[in-house]
C-alpha cells in the first residue's frame, strides 16, 4: 500500500530545495539510497500525476503493475536502474507537478534522488567511458574547431562511413542529429565584430557579460551574435566571457565534484565582472539554471568559491529574461518589424525550471504582429525529450523521439514559419521529430526554420539573418 497520508494534499508554502549533500558519506550509502528510492517510488505509485512527463514514471508504474500484488514491495531493487536511466533531469516533475516537494513533510525531490543514484554509480566507476569522453565539451570543442569541416563531415547523419562506426564505438545513435562545429568560436567573433552600444537607446548605460556557454561558443555562435546585436541596439555594452563549460553534462552523470570545480572556475571569473557593475547573461537555459539554482545547491557552504557562486546566482539572467527586463524597466529601442508566418515556441524544460515565467514567449510577443494583429506566437509546454547527451545515445534515441512526439505533432499542426526553442538541442530534436512523423501527419511548411528566440528577435530588428 502507498504510505498513509496524514498530511494535507500539497503544501501552502513556496517550494524549496535542499542542498545536495554530496560530501557526506551517507549520500553514497546504498542501503540508505534504496530505502529512500522505495519511500519515494511508493509515494509516486500512489500519486501517478507524472505518468506522461517522461519515460521514468511509465517504467516504474509498468513494473509495479506487472506484479501480482500490484505493489512496489514485489519489485526488486535491482530493477530500478532503468527508471533512473530514463530521467533526463529536466526538473519538470519537481517544478510543475509534485505537491510533495519540500517544505511538505513528504520531502520529495525526484530528480535529485535520481542524481544521487547516478553519483553512486559514478563513484563506483560505472559511468560509460564513451559518455565521459563525449561530454568533455571544452576539449572536444577546441579540437573540432581546429578541423571543423572534417568534424562536421564525420558527424553528419548522412555519413554512412563514420556514423555507424561512431554508433559501434561510442554508442551514439547513427540517426541522432549532432551539433556542428565552427572554426571561429563566438568568443573569437565577438573580438572583431565592432559592435558598440546605441547611445540613444533607453537602456544605454547597462553593462552585461555574455556567458557564452560551450554550445554557443563552439556549436552555434549565431545565437551569441544575435544576442550581442540585439543588446547593442538597445544600448547595452556587452563583453563575451567563457572560462569553461558550466558542467551540466557532468551533473547528468552524477559527477558532483566536477560540477563544483566548474563553478569555482566560472563563478570566480564572472564575480569580478559583477563587481565592476556588469549583469551576467547565460545564452542557454540549462546553463542559466546551473548558475542560478544548481551550483548554489551543490557548492558546499564552506567552499572558498561559495561567495562568488552566491553573487553570480543573484546577478544571472537568461537572455530572454534580460530582454524582457529591458522592455519593462527601460523600454526597448525602436525598430521591431513584423515577421510573417508566425512562431511555434517550445518552452524548454530548463527555462521553465528557472521559475521566471515564459520569458521567451513574452519576448517574442514584443514583436508586432502582421497588419496590426496580435503577434502570432503559439507556445508548446512539453518536454522535447532530448535531455542533453541522453537523447543521442543508442539506447535512448527512440525513447527521446517518442517523448518529443507530442511537441513535434503540435509544431506540424501549427505550421508556422519558425520553430523556436531556447534550448538549441531541443530545437534540432523537434525538427527531427517533425521529419519522423512521416507522410500521414501534417507536413511542415516548406521554408520553416528552427531558431533560438533571440535570433528571431534579431531578425525582427533587421539585425541578423
Ligand atoms: S526530472 Fe524530468 S525526466 Fe526526470 S523524472 Fe522528473 S520529469 Fe522525468
Ligand atoms: S514526483 Fe510527485 S507528482 Fe510526480 S508521481 Fe511522484 S509524487 Fe506524484
UniProtKB/TrEMBL annotation:
Lineage: superkingdom: Bacteria
A GO molecular-function descriptor: oxidoreductase activity
Keywords: 4Fe-4S, Iron, Iron-sulfur, Metal-binding, Repeat
InterPro entries assigned: Cys_rich_dom (IPR004017)
Residues in Cysteine-rich domain copies: 209-292, 343-425
Pfam families for this protein: CCG (PF02754)
Keyword Ribosomal protein: no
Protein name: Ferredoxin
Amino acid at each position: 500500500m502507498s504510505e498513509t497520508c496524514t498530511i494535507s494534499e500539497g503544501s501552502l508554502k513556496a517550494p524549496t530545495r535542499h542542498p545536495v549533500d554530496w560530501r557526506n558519506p551517507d549520500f553514497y550509502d546504498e542501503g540508505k539510497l534504496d530505502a529512500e528510492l522505495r519511500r519515494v517510488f511508493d509515494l509516486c505509485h500512489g500519486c501517478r500525476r507524472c505518468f506522461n512527463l517522461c519515460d521514468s514514471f511509465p517504467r516504474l508504474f509498468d513494473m509495479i503493475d506487472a506484479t501480482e500484488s500490484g505493489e512496489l514491495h514485489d519489485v526488486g531493487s535491482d530493477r530500478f536502474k532503468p527508471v533512473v536511466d530514463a530521467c533526463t533531469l529536466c526538473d519538470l516533475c519537481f517544478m510543475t507537478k509534485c505537491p510533495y516537494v519540500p517544505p511538505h513533510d513528504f520531502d520529495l525531490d525526484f530528480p535529485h534522488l535520481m542524481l544521487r543514484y547516478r553519483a553512486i554509480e559514478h563513484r563506483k566507476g560505472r559511468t560509460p567511458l564513451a559518455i565521459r569522453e563525449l561530454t568533455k565539451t571544452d576539449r572536444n570543442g577546441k579540437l573540432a574547431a581546429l578541423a571543423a569541416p572534417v568534424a562536421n563531415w564525420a558527424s553528419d547523419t548522412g555519413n554512412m562511413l563514420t556514423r555507424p562506426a561512431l554508433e559501434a564505438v561510442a554508442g551514439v545513435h547513427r540517426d541522432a542529429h549532432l551539433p556542428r562545429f565552427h572554426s571561429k568560436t563566438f568568443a573569437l567573433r565577438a573580438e572583431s565584430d565592432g559592435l558598440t552600444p546605441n547611445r540613444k537607446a533607453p537602456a544605454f548605460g547597462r553593462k552585461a557579460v555574455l556567458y557564452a556557454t560551450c554550445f554557443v561558443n563552439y556549436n552555434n555562435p549565431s545565437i551569441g551574435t544575435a544576442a550581442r546585436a540585439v543588446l547593442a541596439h538597445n544600448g547595452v555594452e556587452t563583453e563575451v566571457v567563457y572560462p569553461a563549460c558550466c558542467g551540466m553534462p557532468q551533473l547528468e552523470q552524477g559527477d558532483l565534484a566536477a560540477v563544483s570545480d566548474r563553478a569555482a572556475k566560472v563563478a570566480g571569473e564572472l564575480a569580478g565582472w559583477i563587481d565592476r557593475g556588469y549583469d551576467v547573461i547565460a545564452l542557454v537555459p540549462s546553463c542559466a539554471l546551473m548558475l542560478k539554482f544548481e551550483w548554489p545547491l551543490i557548492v558546499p557552504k564552506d567552499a572558498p568559491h561559495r561567495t562568488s557562486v552566491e553573487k553570480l546566482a543573484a546577478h544571472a539572467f537568461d537572455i530572454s529574461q534580460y530582454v524582457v527586463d529591458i522592455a519593462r524597466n527601460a523600454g526597448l529601442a525602436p525598430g521591431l518589424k513584423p515577421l510573417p508566418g508566425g512562431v511555434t515556441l517550445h518552452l524548454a524544460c530548463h527555462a521553465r525550471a528557472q521559475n521566471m515565467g515564459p520569458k521567451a514567449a513574452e519576448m517574442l510577443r514584443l514583436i508586432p504582429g502582421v497588419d496590426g494583429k496580435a503577434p502570432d506566437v503559439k507556445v508548446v509546454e512539453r518536454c522535447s525529450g532530448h535531455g542533453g547527451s541522453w537523447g543521442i545515445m543508442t539506447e535512448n534515441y527512440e525513447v527521446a523521439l517518442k517523448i518529443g512526439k507530442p511537441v513535434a505533432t503540435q509544431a506540424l499542426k501549427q505550421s508556422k514559419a519558425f520553430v523556436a526553442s531556447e534550448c538549441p538541442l531541443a530545437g534540432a530534436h523537434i525538427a527531427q521529430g517533425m521529419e519522423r512523423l512521416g507522410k500521414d501527419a501534417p507536413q511542415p511548411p516548406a521554408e520553416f526554420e528552427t531558431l533560438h528566440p533571440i535570433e528571431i528577435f534579431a531578425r525582427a530588428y533587421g539585425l541578423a539573418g
